Queue: 2 jobs
Job 1
Amino acid sequence: MLDKFIDFWSSLRLTVVCLFAGLVLVFAGTIAQVDLGLYKAQNDFFRSFFVFWSPPGTGLKIPVFPGGYLVGGFLLINLISAHYKRFGFRRDKAGIVMVHLGLILLLIGQLATDMLSKESSMQLFEGESKNYSEDFRGNELVILDQSDSEYDRVHAIPEYSLEKNKTISDPKLPFDVTLKKRWVNASLVQADSKAPQNAIKSGATEGLLKDALVVPAPSVTDMDGRNTPTALVELSKAGRTLGTFLVSSYTGADQPFTVDGKQFNIAMRFARHYYPFTLTLLKATHEKYKGTEIPKNFASRVKVRNSEKNEDRETVIYMNNPLRYSGSTFYQYQMSAGEMASSMGSAPSSTFQVVRNPGWLTPYFSTILISIGLLFQFGLHLVGFIKKRYV
Amino acid sequence: MKLLYKIIPWFFLALFGIEVIVVFMPKSESGLHIREFGRLPVLMNGRIQPMDSVGRNTLLQIRSTGDVPLELVPSWKFWHHAKKLKSSEWLLEVFFKPDLADTRPIFLIHHPELIDELNLGDKGIEKSGLRYYTFKEIEPVIAEIQKQGSKAASLEEKQKTAFHKQVLKLNNAVFVYQMMKASARPPSWNDFEKELASFKKTMAAGLEAMRGKEEGKSFDEALLKDFMVPMTEFFQLARDPNAGQSYPLVVPPTRADQKHEDWSNIGEGMIQSVRNSSVPPPIEYLATIASAYTQDRPAEFNTAVASYREWFLKEGFAVQVKKGNEEFFYNDTKAFVHAVIIYIAAFLLAATALLTLSSAPNFSESLRLSAYWLIILGGAVHTFGLVFRMYLESRPPVTNLYSSAVFIGWGAMIFGIFLERIYKLGIGSLMASLVGFVTLFIAHNLALGGDTMEMMRAVLDSNFWLATHVVTITMGYSATFAAGFLAVVYVFLGLLTPLLGKIPGGPGSTSTGPKLEIGKSLSKMVYAIICFATLFSFAGTVLGGIWADQSWGRFWGWDPKENGALLIVLWNAVILHARWGGLVRDRGLMNLAIFGNIITAFSWFGVNMLGIGLHSYGFMDAAFWWLILFIGTQAAIIGMGLLPMKFWRSFQFKNDNGGSSGKISSRSPSPAPAA
């Protein structure tokens, strides 16, 4: 029985089935990106145990195909048990062992990346400094308590948590927050004759955005776009309502209000990740090839200041040359400088993609292992092949 | 007879070798030195290139050919070389004899609906089902073309039909053509030299009058009016945002404060002349060249071209002149066209060699050797083109879709030569010539988009990654195609001929290849090539991941192009493991390898057609139907490969002779990959 079990898990047949399933999955997941967008397709197909299908018109979710985690997991078990069962250590199989070890490392590393890595962006205008980056997808509702003259107290509620719980009451929060209405994606316009037909009143009673109209929009699927969620929230204290506010990542604007003589601010904005250091954009350079629109170079000269380490230095971030600093990597992502910025009448700015990925080195190690393994194994074949020819 | 068999390979090598040598020989010109003109450097698309490239790439965009045939020759009269207007000469006409250029049939319209819409049914000339129109003929409907064009341009990519795409293409062609006419001389100056001379005389006074008006002082009104006529044209040209993109910048920088790449168009050049109160020599030379050409004065034309060239050399533009000369040479030799011709010949020879293998072994061997030598010759020409391109661009071999096609064919050629060296069956040559021919043909069609040596955008501007990731991944494509096409050969030979079960070389045979059944040899070849394919595609994919980690901050992002590469790796891994596990034998291996063609084609072209993701800079869609057709044929061949053994002539033959068919092929069912 156990033998059969091990046989099953270590069989080459299972390898082929898994690889083939992986192939179908990758293909389907690629095609699905056309309609779903990269992010959703990635979650549905690759970061999942099953790919679900909902028959139109029903809320049913029927698993129709193994997802990335399942296929990857099966392959991993298959690989490990095959080595346990079949190979042992033989010199002429050393290459195969290395290839598979490398693959295991790659799979595990990618799983770790999937779980642990965080991507966000940081936009800086020339001369501006920031010690935080903004999440690519996540949003947060923040309530700033400015009653202390020394510092502001920031209470941040992730959007998903608000969406899930509807009402948040936490002893740390000065009020209870209730989600009244929510638009996954929307823009705001002024209530005047230029407002589009589908603009609607929000029903807010307080705040700067009280009179703004909400223009709901479909959820964004493409990779570069993002939703600007908008919500109507009610603040209350001990059952007494303090008013409803319209908040939106579309503006991200702080809306001041006063409760019991204390000064507060409320805003919905892109979720922030804070760092123990500050980046300042000194100069953004955008060059094009003469007479064309083809970008030749994007470069940002930045200053890194870290008071903890007493560090203050300048560096240049450009395409294919990111800044790696204290566990985060800053990549040149977008830029509005040179002609482009001046034609729009805005100050030059540069946007960095910030990635925090503790497992970033694993692909490098696994590549080295696999390459050596493949070269060794195929080299062995090739030598044998050529030798046999001329015997 | 024996002597004849010895001579045949030499004959073919000499025949095609001489053709190649003739192409590479320096050519002399009598009359107008048009080739000399074609070598002059200009700046377009962000790079220095010869006039000839400007003409060629523009013609490719407009007419889908590199030159303009001047007479209609039926295509069956292949020995009759039609008179042609070569790219440089056409460009000269467009520049300086626009009225004549307007009568050349260059605008290609093939959508019948568009022809009807524009009422062009009774005009134009037809050749091989395509209709070509002169500018004169379409001039009356330009407004309509522009209207339709902007309508089509406002549509989303998905909504565009073939009609819309044709309209856009025509609209662009008309636009580019008209811009081109205004790029080397002010459009209203028919006699450039004379007009320039008289303009120079009024330049100083005119400038003074202009300044006078600006500062509110008294000025000569009539003089200013005359002066402003050409000046308005110059200003218009100088402000044109398409300068350097749709047409070349012809005036090199002459002032010390200008950077080396600060070329300008003729309008900007003239305005600078007025500002500096002196016309720079390049404009003077261009004016002489223009008028001499317009008025058919060859001697003056030739002198002006030569002196302009001298001026370049004297003024520190030696590098640019060299670039112009070299790229002209590259254009002129058309290495890939000649490689294609040789590959076709080699294909025919190798196929004949295979088919006569049993009936006339010595004749077959002689043809096989001819094919092999021709592959080496064609390969050398192919390599020359590839390497010269690399030299011109100072880049690794693959920088865009066009060069990937050239490189895939090159890789397959190398694999083919290796296999042929070892197996001596003609099959290596057959595969090399087939893949070489097909990929160069694809490359030719990809070149119709215009300049194929465009500058690299910032994110791709890394010779290190282009040389490592891009080269290995493309080599992976190449190997997968090589294996796939070898498998196609297996299926055809197996079904239609008794060859797979044969051992080459009987008594008296001159063949020195291995004494192994051809089917077995093919199986070994395919297996070996798939091993290479796995190695290259895996290494390439992972290197790509590392590049992505360096430039976008993630190793793997499930981007379509990345997924495409992963598909190839996975498929090659499936093939290898299925074979190691005994799930497939020879025939199954072949069918899997042919499916590899489908996967590779999807990864190479299909993902670009999805038009999404970070890699979609290679977007193109005209090839969609070709891709579908290719996938269809490959699926059909897999279907043939799945036919029961009794339909396979190779194995019937074996059975007839009482041999055991089990030895050659496996009856174990291969997984149906086409499902």
Job 2
Amino acid sequence: MYGWIWRHLPGNAWLRALISVVLTLAVVYVLFQYIFPWAEPLLPFNDSTVNDK
Amino acid sequence: MAVTTDETEEQTRAPETVPRRRGTGRIAMAVSVFGELLITAGLVLGLFVVYSLWWTNVLADREAGKEANNVRDNWASGDGGPGALDTKDGIGFLHVPAMRNGEVLVKKGTSTKILNGGVAGYYTNPVKATLPGSDKDGNFTLAAHRDGHGAKFHNIDKLKEGDSIVFETRDNWYVYKVYDTLTETSKYNVKVLSNVPKESGMKKAGKYITLTTCTPVYTSRYRYIVWGELERVERVNAERTLPKELR
């Protein structure tokens, strides 16, 4: 999978490495900004109130 | 010697493996993609831990810091009498020296949205908190996160009997003393929020404070409760001199 991506990136090794870093950062950004905030309330790790529900 | 034997072995093996490659190639590829997906899943889970234990703290502290400044600015400029006090950003600050985390902004409500802002919230549901400023007997009930989103009550287990909890408003310091803790209770135990919290051994009406958060750390299986009783109220002076508990 990663090998396939690497082979399909343009340019020489340095350019490919640079693009890979940018892609990785983009993925981390999307995770932190959208995916994790959405997933967190669905997981039972962080309720701190008592309630009758 | 070793090198040459290896080479000859490879040469002899090569004709065998080449024709077989097409068949095993697909399986090998599927296995390697599967393996890469597993590694990716592991990395994503690792990042989720980083997110919940570190990044949410950064965001929450930033937000709470801004609101805390608004509250302080409001107090400094608020000469319009008590009725004009704007409590949208918070009603005051909680200082718990034993928790060693400075001041915690207190806001209305205990919804996820409020608590995720790095503050302590006072209960409006299922039992309404009695605010210290109301001068009525009752229970000032608060909740905050144990981990992530500011982790304001992370060190709640450091609170022992006799420790002070100080609540600061524009005009007063309310000094409470811890008299009982409940290290583990059901999350449905709303009786801990009663105006007279019987589970703490109190039977008479009085001015109490209750802190709630989740326990054990990093999970929310149970709730940790700390009860305190009002010891005295100090007027805030012009220099906002800290009460002796905070010095």
